[in-house]
Design brief:
Blueprint lengths: L12 E3 L4 E4 L6 E5 L4 E11 L2 E6 L4 E3 L7
Antiparallel strand pairs: 1-4, 2-3, 4-5, 5-6
Length: 71
Amino acid sequence: MSSVSADKIIGKSLIARKTVKVYNLPDGSVFGEVKPNGFVGQVYSYITRPSGLWWQLVGGKYVKHETGAFQ
């Protein structure tokens, strides 16, 4: 499996492969969940934290990157 640089994901849409939690802020409270095959959002930016890499979505919500979580 090949890896992709995080900056190449900006502008792409994320689709859930498994249930994905959406957060108000990285490491913050859970805003909601997206079920498998659901549209998670379009990536606006990303940040790295001690807890890992977080995708910032258009609209200001965040999802934590997990291997295999997105299609």
